[in-house]
Write a structure and sequence with these properties.
The chain is an alpha/beta fold. Helix content is about 55%, strand content about 10%. The chain is elongated and about 85 Å long.
Length: about 525
């Protein structure tokens, strides 16, 4: 190990960055209006919407379209107030409050749909998510059959439609899809008909996988289909899942402005809400999800200064040892690494740095202090400068495979997902290994290079010398301090998420150094860990 490892850990004397006073309170809070029915049991409808909006960082408002008598076992009665009263609610809100996003759920009948359609035409909110509630989880119908045609006419006014598989089939007058591929085909048809984006959900399919996909055939997405995989959570507590997902997507979109980023932020939250639903013990039927599973009790102990960083460093040591054992690292240090392997590594590094700079820019936006904002902004700029230098010098003079490699894609996707989640603490934990492990490995390799007498003729001598950059070592120490401060201000549950994000990034660092070998020997590629 390099002696740098201990110097990177924060101590009271070395602190230069003030502890954040609570990053979430400094973020923009979207004002999100839910237009939906009421569920007195609290698991679905307006009640679920308001919890979901709050859990995802928004300020929730509600216009009631219908009153239901229901619980976790089913719907007993539905009362739809006059549409004129819904219009009065909507106008009272929009006359006074700027609305950043709208989520539309249960509408009940034709008159209610007409009232919402007329109001949307006048108010024109920036984000509209339509959850076409037609059938409850229990199987009870929540929309009069006579109103289905009017609901279809409402679809083009939405920016995102989030039907379950039964509702997707009903909107198309087709049988329910029995597998994922059939569901995607139906999603494409509905997107083409409505001229908007459709979120196809795999929650009602059989099997251990539970994918979701954003589908748009009109070019509003970078791709026609953006699929986000996921594992199925084994639970019967799914009451209000569709309501919660759609209102969370409206909130996230108002914060992030990107549907894919919104889905990648919302999906892990909803999976956690399903996993932790058992602790609520609400009802004897399909219970609700735990919207606030990510908030820890306030009596959780706050780690001492430097304690959290020290714990992460212990976690990282095994990954560092794995890095030092890699053929790539051994050959790089000894000068026997082939130019083909080195070129592939640099090409992937250039691609990675471009994505990494975007993630650091997100950290700049979330940072709670001016000092931290400046630090992440400078780091993002330096990434782009290094990427440009790689292309201008070494890579531009050689024939190199510049395609996006699978490890690079997975690593950048992981970082983007961490940045989209909205937690500053989790984000800085995810980006830290690229500072910390890289500095450690670099210092060790440079030390070996010097110990060998700085051999002449070493093909990568100039590159190894860059590892000795004291400015980067200082930046790494500051990044560690910032992360440790963020951990002390975070909840216990958030610190758990920080640890997981850090560990995943460490494994991607190992895989990234090993990627040149895997690229050259595709038959021996193992499934990446992490």
């Amino acid at each position: 190990m390099s002696p740098l490892s201990s110097s990177f850990l924060p101590t009271p004397a070395s602190r230069s960055t003030p502890a954040p006073s609570g990053a979430p309170g400094l973020r923009t809070t979207p004002r999100v209006l839910a237009i939906a029915g009421s569920d007195p049991s609290g698991g679905a409808g307006i009640q679920a919407d308001l919890k979901s909006i709050a859990a995802n960082g928004g300020y929730g408002m509600a216009a009631i379209t219908a009153l239901t008598a229901q619980n976790t076992r089913g719907v007993r009665a539905v009362h739809v107030p006059p549409a004129e009263f819904l219009t009065a609610q909507l106008e009272a809100i929009s006359d006074d409050i700027s609305i950043d996003a709208v989520k539309i759920g249960m509408l009940g009948d034709s008159a209610v749909i007409a009232a919402v359609r007329q109001w949307l035409g006048k108010s024109r909110p920036a984000v509209v998510v339509l959850d076409p509630v037609m059938v409850a989880t229990s199987g009870d119908r929540l929309l009069q059959e006579a109103a289905e045609a009017e609901l279809r006419e409402l679809l083009p006014l939405a920016d995102l439609i989030t039907p379950n598989l039964a509702e997707l089939a009903m909107l198309l007058n087709e049988p329910i899809a029995d597998d994922w591929e059939a569901a995607l085909v139906q999603g494409k048809r509905l997107a083409a008909q409505a001229g908007t984006t459709v979120l196809v959900k795999g929650g009602h399919l059989d099997g251990g996988e539970c994918p979701d996909a954003l589908v748009n055939t009109g070019g509003l997405l970078a791709q026609d289909v953006v699929e986000v995989p996921g594992e199925r959570v084994a639970t019967t507590n799914s009451h209000g899942t569709g309501c919660s997902l759609s209102s969370a997507m409206a909130t996230a979109q108002a914060r992030l402005g990107d549907w894919e980023a919104s889905l990648r932020a919302v999906k892990p939250w909803l999976q956690g809400a399903l996993r932790e639903s058992r602790v609520l013990e609400v009802g004897t039927g399909n219970g609700p999800v735990h919207h606030f599973h990510h908030l820890a009790p306030k009596d959780q102990a706050v780690p001492a200064e430097g304690q959290f960083a020290a714990a992460l460093w212990q976690d990282a040591k095994a990954d560092l040892e794995d890095i030092y054992r890699l053929d790539f690292i051994r050959a790089l240090a000894g000068g026997s690494l082939t130019e083909q392997h080195f070129a592939y590594y640099l090409a992937q590094d250039a691609i990675y740095l471009n994505g990494y700079s975007r993630v650091l820019s997100r950290a700049t936006a979330l940072a709670p202090t001016e000092a931290e904002q400046l630090f992440w902004a400078r780091s993002a700029q330096q990434c782009l400068e290094v990427e440009s230098e790689l292309h201008r010098n070494w890579l531009s003079t050689r024939t190199v495979d510049t395609g996006l490699g699978p490890v690079t894609k997975s690593y950048v996707d992981h970082l983007l997902a961490s940045s989209a989640a909205g937690s500053y603490a989790v984000l800085v934990a995810a980006v830290l290994p690229c500072f910390w492990l890289y500095a450690e490995v670099g210092a060790t390799l440079h030390g070996q290079f010097l110990a060998a007498g700085s051999p002449t003729g070493h093909p990568y001598a100039d590159w190894l010398r860059t590892y000795a950059d004291e400015d980067f070592a200082a930046a790494t120490r500051q990044a560690v301090r910032i992360m440790d401060d963020a951990a002390r201000a975070a909840s216990a549950t958030e610190r758990q998420a920080m640890t997981l994000a850090f560990q995943q990034s460490c494994r991607y660092e190992v895989d990234f150094f090993d990627a040149p070998r895997l690229h050259a020997e595709p038959r021996n590629v193992a499934k990446p860990v992490g």
